[in-house]
Amino acid sequence: MIGVLPVLQIQIKNMNEFNNFYDKLKKHIPSLQIKFKDESWLMKLISNILFFNKDFKTNFITTIGSTVYFPSRQYLEDRKSFNSIVIMAHEFVHASDSNKMGSLIFSFFYLFPQSLSIFSLLLLPFCWYLSIILFLFLLLPMPAFWRKKFELRGYKMSLFAMNELYKKNNLDENERKLKLEQSVDILNKNFITSAYYFMWPFGVKKELSETVYRILSGDIFKDDIVYSHVYKALKQQEQTTL
To answer: pLDDT tens for residues 190-225?
Structure first.
C-alpha cells in the first residue's frame, strides 16, 4: 500500500507510458491486475474499518494478492505524471512478495500484530470479557515489524523508480541525489504516522538514505531481482512508447 509520495513535477506524455509499463510487469506476474476502490464493496468495507486513515479510499493505493486497487479510474487518469509509474513499481513489489509467500500468509504478517486479535475470539465461549479485552488490546497501534519490512521494500523500489525516471529526463547524478534525499524525509513520515497505523515509530530514514546511495552506485541490483524486473520494464516501456 502506498500513501504520501513527494510531488513529482516531471510529466509523462499520456497514459500509454503507464499502460506499457504495466503490461511489461504482467510478464512477471500474469495475474497482476488493476481495480478501483470506488467500484469495490471490499474496499468500501475496509475503508470503514480503517477509521484511523481517513484517506484510505481516496488517496491510497492498496494491493491484495496481485490486485492493485487505485482509488478510482479518474484518480489514475488524472495522474499523467510519473507518479503513476512509481506507484505501480512500489505495488509490484507487494504483489511479488504476496505471490512468493501466498496471499493469506503475506496478509497475516502484513497486519501483524493486529492480526493476532482474531485468535482472542476463540476464548469467547470460556471467558468472554477476557476475550474482548485481549481483542481490543491487540488492536492498539504497536510497532509492526513485518509491515515495516514489506513497506520498506516497497518504498526502496519507489526511490529506485524515481531515479530511473529522473535519468530519463536528463537529470545529472547530483540533481537526482538531491531529489531522492528530499524524498527520504517525506517517505519516512509514512512509517511514523497514522498512514500505516503508526507501524514503526522509530522511522526508517537511515535505511532509506542508505538505499539512495545503493541506487546511485548501482549496487541495488544485488539486493533483489525485482529491481531488474522493473528496470527492464521501464526500458521496454520507453522503447514501446518511442
So the answer is: 999 988 999 999 999 999 999 999 999 999 999 999
| In the chain, where the domains are located | 15-236
Collect the ranges in the chain with pLDDT lower than 50.
4, 7
**Cell reading at 31:** 495475474
| Tens-place pLDDT, residues 128-143 | 999 999 999 999 999 9
Q: For residue 231, how many other CB atoms are within 10 A of its CB?
A: 16
Name which of 117, 195, 209, 105 is nearest 156 in CA terms.
209
Across the chain, which distance is largest between two alpha carbons, in Å? Answer: 67
pTM comes to: 0.91
Predicted confidence at residue 240, as pLDDT, reads 62
**The C-alpha cell that represents 220 in the structure block:** 541495488
Mark 45-84 as b/e (b = at least 16 C-beta within 10 Å): ebbeebeebeebbeebbbbbbbbbbbbeeebbeebebbbb
Q: Is 198 left (phi over 0), alpha (psi -120 to 50) or beta?
A: left
| Helix 145-168 vs helix 173-192: crossing angle, to nearest 10 | 160
Residue 208 grid cell = 532509506
> Is the Cα dihedral 194, 197, 202, 203 positive or negative?
negative
Residue 93 is inside which H or E element, if any? helix 83-101
- CB-count exposure of residue 31 (10 Å: 0-12, 13-18, 19+): exposed
Whole-number pLDDT of residue 241: 56
Quote the cell numbers at residue 34.
488493476
